[in-house]
Amino acid sequence: MYKIKSFFIILLTALCLNVKSQQIIASSEIDPLEVILIHRAAKIYLKDTNVQIIVKNSPLYPGLEGMTQQIGPKLYSIDIAFDLKNKKERKWTILHEFGHVLDFYLGFLSQHPPRWMGKKIDHRLPWNLRPWEISADNWAAELWAALLDEPPPYVIWNMEN
């Protein structure tokens, strides 16, 4: 009787513990292969098991293919333009936006207040000169090479080297 009682106490204790793991929460219209891509990137590049990423298609401003926000500590939202249909470009955009997640997580990018590497973000900079966008493209190129066995849709020139 004592062993059964002990077993149930241990089981109840285990069930009551707040055990978290990395979660990718995707809306139903997101291709399952895209969810797997994000999961693989998170598993390899984010060792933290408490990170949660919400992924969804959204009507974004024309010309904007994706947008990432830090909702809270270790909680991120990736929005992909609902009209972005090309699968290769969608993968690239997802990896680019995941690059922003990495920069948020690593403390390089801050949303509240908006800062890059501790300095106030200047939104007047042309898009292609914004260091946080350059970083996200560099992450996308690295992630693409590590996770996909096909040529990327874009070539990124690293101007730092």
Can you walk through the features of this model?
This protein is of the alpha/beta class. It has one domain (18-147): Collagenase (Catalytic Domain) (3-Layer(aba) Sandwich). Helices cover 41% and strands 20% of the residues. It is built from four helices and seven strands; from the N terminus they run H-E-H-E-E-E-H-E-E-E-H. It has a four-stranded mixed beta sheet, covered by helices on one side. A three-stranded antiparallel beta sheet has the order 5-6-7. Helix 2 (32-45) runs parallel beside helix 3 and helix 3 packs across helix 4 (131-147). The longest helix has 20 residues, at 87-106. 22% of the residues are buried.
Detail the topology: elements first, then pairings.
Layout (H helix, E strand, L loop, with lengths): L1 H15 L6 E4 L5 H14 L6 E7 L7 E7 L2 E7 L5 H20 L2 E3 L2 E3 L2 E2 L10 H17 L14
Parallel strand pairs: 1-2, 2-4
Antiparallel strand pairs: 3-4, 5-6, 6-7
Helix pairs in contact: 2-3, 3-4
Short description:
Helices cover 41% and strands 20% of the residues. The strands form 2 sheets. A 4-stranded mixed beta sheet has the order 1-2-4-3, covered by helices on one side. A 3-stranded antiparallel beta sheet has the order 5-6-7. Helix 3 (87-106) crosses helix 4 (131-147).
